[in-house]
Amino acid sequence: MKEKKGFSINGYSVFLALLIIIGAVVSQAINYNVGVLSFVGIVFIIFILPGFFMVQPNQGKVMTFFGSYVGTVKSNGLRWSIPFFKRKNISLRVRNFESNQMKVNDNHGNPIEIATVVVWSVGDTAEAMFEVDDYISFVNIQSESALRNMATSYPYDQHDGDEIALRSHSKEVSEALKCEIQERLEKAGVKVHEARISHLAYAPEIANAMLQRQQASAIIAARRLIVDGAVGMVEMALTQLSEKSIVELDEERKAAMVSNLLVVLCSDKSTQPVVNTGSLY
Asked: Of the candidates 139, 138, 135, 140, which has an alpha carbon nearest to the alpha carbon of residue 99?
């Protein structure tokens, strides 16, 4: 079932016509000239009055006629339609839904806590009203279901170079979550504007262990950078000593110098220099 435009006309013009009819009926009643025209006028008044309704901004009126969908009116202001049409309000405004914090397992089996915020609005009033029993409850349940499924598709943290992770690739994860929620809500006539993770953390039972793992990874990465820089500096020192013929070192002395320089450059504490006043040999 797809949305279609319902029949309605400007209510102000109908109201003006109604005033003219009322004036004519009252005029005839004052002149004691009550006849067929007065009766017809009264019938028109009774018929016209129930057809007035108001449409607020970003609101729609879904109309049915004896159980059949006849259209949706979205034009704002005072409107008039056939009185026999049953009208029901439906909001077209943008809404927010924030899920509860859920405990799920990520792609590596680690228990994590996750929650999402979904920004949505009704796009097709007919599907929202007639395809599902309660479209608001449908949005809430399907959004949480999509979040659970998405969380199991990615790891919490990035371990490989090109791996998409929940913590490090928020843009890609949000886009994937939005697409999955939109696919689930398509049948309810709902349009998803944005979906993003509002809460992400390891579950309390493994939080300490994972924190130590993150700290160890950071220390290893820092040490690797320090070692790379130290090796480059040692290589540069040996090359300049050799090119400028400052001192000639055999392999044993070179090894000792390399060892001393690496200790100085890679140590996490200040080293104490020892001055050699004697001969190197």
From this structure: 140
Domain range annotation of the chain: 9-90, 95-202, 207-266
Dihedral sign of CA atoms 263, 266, 268, 274 in order: positive
In terms of CATH, what superfamily is 95-202? Band 7 domain (3.30.479.30)
- What would the pLDDT profile of 191-236 be if each residue is shown by its tens digit? 999 999 998 888 777 656 666 666 666 677 777 777 777 788 877 8
Strand partners, 140: none
Phi-psi category of residue 227: left, alpha or beta, with phi > 0 → left and psi -120 to 50 → alpha: alpha
Q: How far is CA 262 from the centre of its chain?
A: 50
CB atoms within 10 A of CB 88: 12
User: What is the pLDDT, as a whole number, of residue 204?
Assistant: 75
Q: pTM score, two decimals?
A: 0.70
Q: CA–CA separation, 14 vs 10, rounded Å?
A: 7
